[in-house]
Write a structure and sequence with these properties.
The structure is a homotetramer. By secondary structure, chain A is of the alpha+beta class. Chain A is built from two helices and five strands. Chain A has a single domain, classed as Hotdog Thioesterase (Thiol Ester Dehydrase, Chain A, Roll), CATH 3.10.129.10.
Chain lengths: 131, 131, 131, 131
């Protein structure tokens, strides 16, 4: 399955009073990196939304290994760990050079307009995201 | 050990394009609730900082059960699950009435100015937070 | 016209690496206070949205007088300065006790689904917000 | 005086329940663009901090012209409008292609550790930022 890397630079307002990237901000970074993954996989996320489905994050398990600071250039690696038609798990690692800053397992499912886990039209098969 | 409940109201800017509280925002809510817990336990957090120590979050494992919306009144229950001198785990549950919105286990440790896990002066014994 | 005061407590994650409330966060605080104003005025904001209209902020002119810090209790006073059917200006002042922290003039207009300034059904007359 | 352009891509979590970039987020974008301006001008901002001074934003006057959406590529132009030794005004324009999204005047001053407007060592003359 595809492995994808997004690069971003820490912005000063993402840092807290310790001068570290605030620990909640990584959850945003991970979402950004997953969207970049979907773009790279040519997954039609806007089409999924128009079809009346969306993805719901059911669990984020993130471990913080080392702090990051303003202006740091971070690489976020995103790789599916389990990819089914309605749910899956992404493994994501945030690095600054060789140093692991954070590592996460993010669980998601596809839900219908009522918010119930539900299989989307086959064109939006998440299992089809892999190249 | 002490169980503590904080109440907050969802602000509109905390919601994303689905109209749901953005999933990263809960990580901020949990931090706020833990600080309220420390206040209620008379823990001198500013004194800890002045002594050259601070707390570092090492892991957040959060499960999202149900969405929350603007103006929702949420209760966040915070209870230590494991409370040692240098590290511990807090169990936190976010509810709207009877409905569980999210549930988390948050792991922390006390670190010194160099960021290494380190035992603070005994006045700041986290094990002493319980009433 | 009605003057309304909202109280909130600064949360630690709203502070930046200077230990001050980040200057963008006040823009969020002001939005929160305006929504509280609308609630207090019994303005049916959700009804406005259901009717296919919404409010668009066209200008925020905010002056920062003094920093605020984590745990500060802030009062935000909101008062219409100019209130027409399609547009208006709110005057908002953020205070900690007697100290003025920030002061803003916020310009808004009602727009239709295409985003064009447009008069909503008379039930949603903004001019009718005043008690 | 130097004119500088920063490019950024809107991240999904920066959008609110209308699907628009939240209006407070632009204030963060502007800060990011000003820091990029300072980098480009070889201004030693970290040195300024180490010397016991920092910059305080005294006023942001921002007009919103058109909404921006997730994945939009935005250009932010930053240009000093008035640049003195202790205070100044930056003019910033956010564009998507030819469309102006927002335009702002941002007033700042240099303050000492007590937060009082104060002239920094001449090495940090803001007036010296221009190339």
């Amino acid at each position: 399955m595809m492995k994808h890397v997004t690069t971003l630079t820490v912005r000063p307002y993402e840092c807290d009073s310790y001068g570290h990237v605030n620990h909640a901000v990584y959850v945003n970074y991970l979402e950004h990196a997953r969207m970049q993954y979907l773009h790279a996989a040519n997954f039609d996320y806007k089409g999924l939304i128009r079809s009346g489905f969306f993805t719901f994050i059911t669990r984020v398990d993130i471990s913080y290994r080392s702090p990051a600071f303003a202006d740091d250039v971070l690489e976020i690696e995103t790789e599916p760990e389990d990819l089914r038609k309605v749910r899956g798990v992404m493994h994501q690692v945030v690095r600054r050079g060789e140093i692991v800053i954070a590592e996460a397992h993010v669980h998601w499912c596809v839900v219908n307009a009522e918010g119930r886990p539900s299989r989307p039209p086959s064109a939006f098969d998440m299992g089809g995201m892999a190249p």
